[in-house]
Amino acid sequence: MQIYNKVFLYGIMVFALAQGCSKDLAPQTVQSVPGKSERKINREKRRRAWIGYWYKRRNERVTRRSERQLNRLEKKSRRAEAKMQQDHIKKQTPAVQKRMKETKKEAEQNNSRRNLRQRLRLWRYKK
């Protein structure tokens, strides 16, 4: 009989603790914080929201600054590739230059993402 009483008592304790730790289904309008009034709680909420807003802005600024160098390098590589392509075309004979320009136009119409090596490979096998 005592074992049943202990099990029953432990069951009630676990149930009471589980109810105390569960989330509120309906949020309270004013949090019950001992020693703080509704005005202080609202002021802290606004302050935390403002701090969060500025941290978010700062993180975005830092992210843009770090991506800036990558964007510059990407632009530089695109310019270098275009220059390399122009130099390669200038080294060819006029007949080959004409054929290469036609191939380049076709390649840009079909797939503008092709780089110089892919265009040259296409030109090599075109007759």
Quick structural gist:
The chain is mostly helical. Helices cover 79% and strands 0% of the residues.
Walk me through this protein's architecture.
Helix content is 79%, strand content 0%. The chain contains four helices and no strands.
Q: How many helices does DSSP assign? A: 4
Order of helices and strands: HHHH
| Uncertain ranges | none
Biggest pleated-sheet summary: none
Shape designation: elongated
Strand residue percentage: under 5%
Distance between the termini: 100 Å
List descriptors:
mainly alpha, single chain, 127 residues, 79% helix
Task: Describe the SSE topology.
Layout: H1 2-21, H2 38-90, H3 94-110, H4 116-125
Helix pairs in contact: 3-4
